[in-house]
Amino acid sequence: MKRLYTNSSKFDKNAVDNLGISELVLQENAAMAVAEVVRQNLKSGSKILAVCGKGNNASDAIAALRMLSVEYECYALLLKDDLNHNAKIQLNIAKNVGVDLLDFECDFSKFDCVIDGIFGSGFRGEMEPKIANLIEQINGLNALKIAVDMPSGVSNFGVASQVFKADFTICMGVLKLGLYSDIAKDFAGEIIQANLGLNESKFSYGNSDYLVLLDDLELPNRALKNVSKGDFGHAFIACGDMSGASKIAASSALKMGAGRVSVVNLTQNSLNLDPQIMLKNSFDGADAIAFGMGLGGASFDFSKLINRLCVVDADAFYQPWIRDFAMSKLAILTPHPKEFSSLLRLCEIGEFSVDEIQNNRFKLAREFSSKFPSTLVLKGANVIIAKDGVLYVAPQGSAKLAVGGSGDALSGIILAYLANKFSPLKAAINGVLAHQKSAQIYKGNDYSFTPNDIIEGLAWL
Question: Which sites bind K(+) (predicted)?
Answer without folding.
Answer: 57, 116, 152
